[in-house]
Write the C-alpha cells for this entry.
Amino acid sequence: MQATTFPLTASANHETHARPSIVPQLQRSEIFRGYQQAFETTTGLPLALRATGTFQSPLHASKQVNAFCALMASNNATCAACLRVQQRIEAEAATEAKTFQCFAGFSESAVPVRLGEETLGHLQTGQVLHARPTKTRFQAVLRELAAWSAKVDARQLEAAYFSTRVMAKKQYDGVVHLLGVFAQHLSAVSNQLLVQESNEEQPAVAKARAFIAANFGEQLSLVQVAHAVNMSAFYFCKVFKRATGLTFTDYVARVRIESVRHLLLNPHTRVSEAAYAAGFQSLSQFNRTFRRIAGEAPSAYRDRLHGGAVVGHLAPLPHAA
C-alpha cells in the first residue's frame, strides 16, 4: 500500500450519495464499539468511523489521539490543513483503502465501508510514524509551520513529536488490512440495519415488514403487500419509502440477499439453491442484485466465507413466467 503525500493547500470536491442515517447507527452498535476498544487497546492507535461528507478529523475524539496531532488541531492554520487532508481522504479512498502522509510525515489511513456500490463512510486510523523522529525532521516541521504563520509552543510541540508512536510500515499495513476485513463485516451489518424494524415506525410499515419477512421466498408484488396492510398501492409506496428510505423493490431485494447470506453459511449450500430459496426467479437477476447490494459476485462471497473452498457449481434457475 503506497502512501500519498498531498499538498496541504489542495482542495477536493467530492459528491457523495451515502445514506446519512446508517453510519450513526453503526457508530452506536456494540460490534463497532467493541472492535474499536479492542483495536485501540491492542495497537495503541486511534480508530474512528466517519460518515462521508463530514470533513472534521474524527481521530481527535479518540483516547489514543496523537499528542502532536491534537496540538495541530487546536491551531487554526494547522487545523485547516488537517481538514484539507480529510477532503483528500474522502476523494481518494472511495473504493479502496488508502494511506496518506501529512507534511510532518504522519501516516493516516482510511478504509471505505461500502454498501454494495455506495460508500457510506470510512474507518480511519493512523497518526503514526514509520521511522524514529529526528531533530532534523522536527526542524523541517517547524520551518513549515513558520511559513504558515502558525503560532505554536515549540517545546510542547517537540515533546509531542518525539513521543509519537512509531510502527514499521509492514506492521502498519497489516493493521490496515485488518480494518479492511472489519469494513466488510460492517458492510453486511449496514444492509441488516436497512431492513431492520424501527420502534418508531407506523404500525402499517411494521406489518408490511413482517408480511415481507414471511413471504419473500415467494413471488411478491407491491399490490399484494399494500393489500395486506389495507392501503392503496400508491399510498403504501410513499409511506414505505418515507419510513425505510428504500423503494419496495429494493427493500425486498435486500431482505432476499440477507437470506442468501444466511443460507450460504452452510458450506454445502449451492449459490443457486440459496437464490431460489430466497425468492429470486432467475440467476442473472440474482447475480446483478447480489453484486449491487453486496459489492461482489455471490460465488466470490461464498468462497471468501469458506476460505476459498469450492462447493458445487452454479445451476441455472427457471426464469419467471
Summary: Strands lie at 3-5, 47-51, 98-101, 107-115, 118-128. The two ends are 49 Å apart (CA to CA).
